[in-house]
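lol ok so funny story. i was supposed to be doing the assay writeup but got distracted and ended up predicting the structure for this chain instead. priorities right. anyway since i did it might as well share w the group, maybe its usefull for someone
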Amino acid sequence: MLELIRGKEGFICDMDGVIYHGNQLLPSAKKFVDWLKKENKKFLFLTNSSERSRLELHQKLLRMGLDVDEEHFYTSALATAHFLAKQSPGCSVYCIGEAGLHNALYEAGLSMNDVNPDYVVVGETQNYNYANISKAVKLVMNGAKLIGTNPDLTGPSEGNVIVPACAALISPIEIATGKKAYFLGKPNPLMMRTGIQLLGCSPKNAAVIGDRMDTDIIAGVESGTSTVLVLSGVSTRETVNEFPYRPTIILDDVGCIAE
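and the output, tada:
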């Protein structure tokens, strides 16, 4: 089965829990990226994190010793901005998120509005507080549509400590308003379809690599790719038994593909 994965033309790879934890590069990551380049594989880092731009992700990996061009990144912030620009060109948003999300929205031609926006958009951020939650609740109650950049409840940070992610941060707004958010990011097929297009090969010739059954693996299964669950993030071998679908293969980390 491992040879089947190694023979794929292209790879869509998660980042948090697969390549790094927070600002700590995982030991297997450099071996895997070097292997991708050596074998002339097509690859795309498809991350549900909305905090950083492509340039910032490039620079983050560069600080860790990995040189990956900006064209190899696609984020849930970009997917969210693309979706909103297609649905309602030139719309306005109230955004709770970091610079990567704000910049993606601006670049898609959207504007910020904390009075009567068309959408309230929530992504991961360190600036999450009672004031912006209350503002978001008021705006949604007044008719703004609620959007989440991704449906992750938790994610790994430095030292593999589990921290709240977008779905956990947006849940107080959902509870207070009675409105359900629409989530972009994996496993939303809109993001996966774009990822496969950017990768430049057919689903049957691609593999999705991730540490989460409920986003990465289901996204690959529903897109028709092979799937690799790595145990360097939030999942364990026991986690797999909680789901009705299974990955193509389970590996300790991405370095196993390059060995």
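The chain has a mean pLDDT of 95. The longest strand covers residues 42-47.
back to the writeup now i swear
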